[in-house]
Every structure is written in structure tokens, then in C-alpha cells.
Amino acid sequence: VQLVESGGDLVQAGGSLRLSCAASGIIFSMFTMGWYRQAPGKQRELVARIASGGSTVVEDSVKDRFTISRDNAKNTVYLLMNSLKPEDTAVYYCNADLTSAWSRRDYWGQGTQVTVSS
């Protein structure tokens, strides 16, 4: 299983980025896909996730600025980030999760750095 993130960059405050995560080795359409982030000295936190059926959960602090989407035909999940703030600076990780009553499959990407300058 591989999750490969891309799109991280250095951007000025107010700018935009789109992160992509390409998955292989899984039946992508079955998995809940998520984006998490970890800033220096902080715990990893959920940013947004999208279920196999398309329903989304977005963390309150980014709800009006970030949009998660998925393309099952391309096995890819995206995170569109607008109006970026310095506090959005973190390593962003892609997650694939398939949890049932009897098992859990949970995979992570290697992360992509997003740095927002003020």
C-alpha cells in the first residue's frame, strides 16, 4: 500500500495550495480518506476526511477555507486550501482508513510540508 502526497510548498499568507494524495494497493473507493497535520511541538490533528460515500468532516478552524474532495477514478484525494494562515504551517499527512466491526486497516503517507509565511 502506498499513499503519496504532493503539493506542499512555501506560500505567503492569504495564498492557496492544493494537496494531492495518490493511493495504490487498496480498493480506494471503499476507504475513508483523511488529511491530518502536525505542527512542530504539537500532536497530529485531523484536518478533514471524506467517507467512501462522499460525506465530509472538516475541522472547525479550517472549515471556511479548506475543501476535501476525492476522485475514485484516479484513486486520489485532494485538499484545497485557501486563505492560508501562518498557523496552517505543518506537515500534512494523508490517511486511508477502513474500519469495520471486526477489523481496521489504517495507512499513512509520508507527509508533505506546508509553510505559510506572514
Model description:
With 118 residues, this protein is mainly beta. Helices cover 0% and strands 55% of the residues. It is built from no helices and eleven strands. The protein has strands at 2-6, 10-12, 17-24, 32-38, 45-50, 56-58, 66-71, 76-81, 90-99, 104-108, 112-117. It is globular, with a radius of gyration of 14 Å. The termini are far apart.
Keywords:
118 residues, mainly beta, four-stranded antiparallel beta sheet, globular, 11 strands
Secondary structure tally, helices: 0
For the biggest sheet, the summary is: 7 strands, mixed
Radius of gyration: 14 Å
Shape, principal axes of CA atoms: globular
- Class inferred from helices and paired strands: mainly beta
Give the secondary structure arrangement, pairings included.
Elements: E1 2-6, E2 10-12, E3 17-24, E4 32-38, E5 45-50, E6 56-58, E7 66-71, E8 76-81, E9 90-99, E10 104-108, E11 112-117
Brief synopsis:
The chain is an all-beta fold and 118 residues long. Helix content is 0%, strand content 55%.
